[in-house]
Amino acid sequence: MRKKTCKVFFSVSSFSSFFSFFFLCLGIFFCMEMAMAQNRSTIPINVGVVFDMDAWVGKMGLSCISMALSDFYSSDHGSDYKTRLVLHTRDSKRDIVAAAAAVDLLKDLEVKAIIGPTSSMQADFIIGLGEKAQVPIISFSATSPSLSSLRSPYFIRATLNDSSQVKTISSIIQYFGWREVALIYIDNQFGEGIIPFLTDALEKINARIHYRSVIPEFAIDDRITSELHKLRSMQTRVFIVHMTTSLGAKIFTMAKELGMMSEGYVWIITDAMANELNSMDPSTIESMQGVIGVKPYVPRTKQLEDFTTRWKLKFQQENPTILNAELNVFGLWAYDSATALAMAVEKSRNAGASFQKLHTSGNTTYLEAIGVSKDGPKLLQAILNTTFKGLSGDFQIVDGQLRSPAYQIINVIGNGAKGIGFWTRENGIIKDLSLRSTKNGHSISKTNFGTIIWPGDTTSVPKGWVIPTNGKKLRIGVPLKHGFSQFVKITRDFTTNTTTVTGYCIDVFKEVMDALPYYVPYEFVPYVTPDGETTESYDDLVYQLFLGTFDAVVGDTTIFANRSQYVDFTLPYTESGVAMVVPIKDKNRNKAWVFVKPLTWELWLTSFCCFVFIGFVIWVLEHRVNEDFRGPPWHQVRLIFWFPFSTMVFAQKEKIVSNLARFVLIIWFLVVLILTSSYMASLTSTLTVEKLQPELLKSNEYVGYQQGSFVARLLAKMNFDEDRLRPYSTPQECVDLLSRGSANGGIAAVFDEIPYVKLILAKYCSKYTIVGPTYKSDGFGFAFPMGSPLVPDVSRAVLSVTESEKMVQIEKAWFGKYTCSNSSASPSSNSLGLDSFWGLFVIAVVAATLALLIFLTTFMHEHWHIMRQSNLPFHERIRILARNFDRKDYSSHTFKNSELRDAVGVLGHMDCPQSPHDNLSMFASPQTNEPPSPSISSHTEQIFHLPGEEGGTPPSHEENVAVSTQESVIGLAIDLNAGR
User: Fold this and answer.
1) Going by fewer Cβ within 10 Å, which terminus of the chain is more open, N or C?
2) Is 431 helix (H, G, I), strand (E, B) or coil?
3) pLDDT reported for residue 855
């Protein structure tokens, strides 16, 4: 029974095993069929890969490309693609001429695209082959700006151009205010390509490359050490390093050994090294503490973190000898480049067509045998139009290269790099990308950088310029001169063989150097001619800076345009200008007509005409309403001239009752006040100080200038004859020449700079004075070589010293106190002209004219009925208007309070004689009740005798109304006079 059971169990087991094996084989067969069917349905596209397999970028790039294709074709989107990229790798073996590998791929395999090479030098050769075969060349690490897609449209830079980072670097330089940098770069196409772009970017921020340190790619240690010693002996302390990682590591290691990674130094690395910091040796990172770097910003995403983890695992399995490998942005660009190429191949409907062979003769070269890709133009266009979100960010090709993202600014601290800020085209340097920019394009954050640890483990921002560590002092050239020793004085002690330099300019320079935020050692070196005499020309002294004899020039050196072409000047520390000094001679005491000189004849004439016009306007406005402006004709004419002139001293006795006249008079008082005040000031100046500036050119007088000064050239430009110029060296010699005069072997005037003039006038201000205009000059300044970084700092220190009390103390110590007031700026001797007052006259005339027009308009409106009398001739109507104007206006308030004047005014309104006796003869004595005398009656008849009665023309209605009105008024006047 047991045996039977065992047999049955064995039979069942055998049966189940058979079926399991059968289904397993069936599954394997099915999978193989599916795979073969899929392979039969996809189109293989040959793609070449040219890398330096021994270089880190090549190994990392190849692994990233393989993973990119695997990830893409296994994704939901890529699995439906009919095309599949097939990689054919070639090792360029660090050969610059990597054309052999590319030719093999193009001729034998007819690849549709080439990814690589890794270096810019190799890419320069392969780009030409790609253009010939119309095959896109895609490089994710050739960053040299000299490789341009404009030269070859088939070159696609799937990385950033080195020129895109120069604005970030220049923004850092500008932010910290550094003016000079030294550029350290590798001696190849990659290193040289950035130079023109960086130079232009620095020039835009008023900075420059002071020195270029070129280091060969395979330089030995002695060569690097020698170059670093040269950099350390220079004044510039800001270094920009642009080179490969391997050579850069050597430089920083040796720089630390030489003490060049200490406090005061600034090191800035480009993205060529900044991108690979995480793959450097810890010893190299230790030597780079405090370095600033720039690199493209790659946002941290979940996709990037997952890929980084998978890549490290895969790369460690494939390269077990490489430990702690770190992925950088070049690997991400390689991954995105392969993805973009896979997408573009599918979009271009690439069918893997063979190359079109060129018709050549039998003796063709190996390069001539390369055909032309039929799918190349379509594939190129598809790549340029491909955009997606990659591992490195937004992938988009613009003008043949990857669109530039934001740049991250890093600081090497501890075991790695720390982000301290960002740079974008829109906002410049910002601390956080999440901050929005303002309208002017600046960040709204208070500080644009995070905390920066500079070399030497300090947070203090380096000045970027220091005195070299070799202890060399600045050689300060000073002029040797005998006169005007208050400015510069050189004393030689022959017993001790020492030289002492003192003076106003020297003390100012010492104060300025003490005000600098850093110590600058210097020594004064007198400049003498070869024969040992004094400095003949300051131009020669300043030119010594250009020749390198001196490091600076200090003294009474004027800032001049011609000199600034080869040296740089600081801001001036003295008053600027060239003035003329002449003796004071009071000749006006014997001039009877000196009171006329303060005003020009045009101003005299204009003032007189304006006075008469204002008097006429006031008379017109006051004549009908003011008793003071009435009377005999000769009295009224005299009043027209008298009244406006009396306002000059406010002595007018006539009262003004018209509002229009008061308005005109207010304006006129303002004009008179300003005119008289100006006249008195000018007259006082003319009587006190002689009209001193002689007609030097016309009279051919001798003039003086200081020996060695640029004033001689200024006088030559002013057309002074060189034979009439006499130099002087000391203030005493200048005074002696002036005292003798031009006719006695002296000079008539002196032209010199204001600091010297003030020194002379401080002692002789009672005898000499400044006259005429001040000619433009820029004062005294300190001179430095062209482009010296000391100039901005010294200029700021000059401002600090000149605005302080210390400057006043230095001036008092060397020049003393001025005993004469206004000795350096006497009033101008020019007469006051019409151009200074025409605005006042215009205001007065316009106001008077406006008032006159208002009065005439009102008067004509009241008497317009006379002008409408068509039965009268025009001249008769004008005569009546003039007669009415000459009569009093009894509607005015000035006449309403006097009844007697009203009666007399009525008679006057009836064309009565305006004799002073008429008012008394027209009425009987107020003490009698008798009727008016016959003379009054007859006179009344004469009054009402109208022209129509004699000429047979009946009076008009208006005239009858006027007569009846006049009769009533006369009757009222008679009744009042009779006492009724």
Assistant:
1) N
2) coil
3) 83
Indicate the residue among 787, 811, 835 that finishes a domain: 811
CATH of the domain at 255: 3.40.50.2300
3-state secondary structure 55-124: CHHHHHHHHHHHHHHHHHHHCCCHHHCCEEEEEEEEECCCCCCCHHHHHHHHHCCCCCEEECCCCHHHHH
Q: Residue 520: left (phi > 0), alpha (psi -120 to 50), or beta?
A: beta
The reply to whether 628 and 754 lie within a common domain is no
pLDDT of residue 534: 64
Q: What is the pLDDT of residue 99?
A: 66
696/669 same-domain check? no
Helix (H, G, I), strand (E, B), or coil: what is residue 139?
A: strand
Same domain membership, residue 498 and residue 418: no
Numbers of helices and strands, H then E, in the chain: 33, 28
Mean pLDDT by 10 residues, the chain (980 residues): 44 48 55 51 87 85 93 86 90 71 82 87 82 89 77 86 92 90 91 91 89 91 92 90 92 94 94 89 92 93 92 88 85 94 86 65 59 86 92 89 90 91 90 63 58 92 74 84 84 82 93 84 83 70 88 90 88 86 63 71 84 84 76 76 71 73 82 81 63 57 84 83 86 87 85 85 78 77 87 90 89 72 44 76 86 84 77 79 75 58 47 39 38 38 37 43 42 40
Tokens, residue 439: 């309208």
Answer whether residue 827 is part of any domain.
Answer: no
Question: What does the block give as tokens for 395?
Answer: 């992938």
Which residue's entry shows tokens 């800032």? 559
Residue-wise over 780-802: b if at least 16 C-beta within 10 A, else e? bbbbbbeebbbbbbbbbbbeebb
Return the axis-axis angle of helices 805-815 and 504-514, rounded to nearest 10°: 160
Distance CA 852, CA 855 (A): 5
Q: What angle separates helix 633-646 from helix 601-622, to the nearest 10 degrees?
A: 130
Residues 700 and 654 in one domain: no
CATH number where 750 lies = 3.40.190
| DSSP single-letter state for residue 163 | G
Best CA proximity match to 454, nearest among 445, 440, 464, 444: 464
| Neighbouring residues of 371: CB distance < 8 A, sequence distance ≥ 6 | 107, 110, 133, 354, 355, 356, 357, 358
CA dihedral sign, ordered 921, 926, 927, 933? positive
Q: Which domain holds residue 782?
A: 472-576+778-811
In a domain, 912, yes or no: no
Decide: helix, strand or coil at residue 394. Answer: strand
The CATH number of the domain where 791 resides is what? 3.40.190.10
Is 796 found in the same domain as 708? no
Alpha-carbon Rg of the chain, whole angstroms? 52
Is residue 929 situated within a structural domain?
Answer: no
User: What is d(CA 613, CA 635) in angstroms, rounded to the nearest whole number?
Assistant: 17
Report whether 383 contacts 390 (CB < 8 A).
no
d(CA 713, CA 684): 36
Copy the structure tokens of residue 765: 């201000």
Structure-block tokens of residue 434: 């999440």
Q: Are strands 387-390 and 266-269 parallel, antiparallel or unpaired?
A: unpaired
* Three-class SS state of 557: coil
User: In total, how many domains does the chain have?
Assistant: 5
Q: Are residue 534 and residue 666 in the same domain, yes or no?
A: no
Residues 239 and 311 reside in one and the same domain: no
How far apart, in whole angstroms, are the C-alpha atoms of residue 216 and residue 227? Answer: 11
736 and 787 fall within a common domain: no
> CA nearest 164: which of 329, 422, 404?
404
Query: Tokens representing 748?
Result: 């008539």
pTM over 0.90: no
Specify burial of residue 573 (Cβ count, 10 A radius: 0-12, 13-18, 19+). Answer: buried
Q: Which residue has the tokens 């002379």?
A: 760
What six digits make up the tokens of 337? Answer: 């480049």
Q: Find the Cα–Cα–Cα–Cα dihedral 713, 715, 718, 724, rounded to 10°.
A: -130
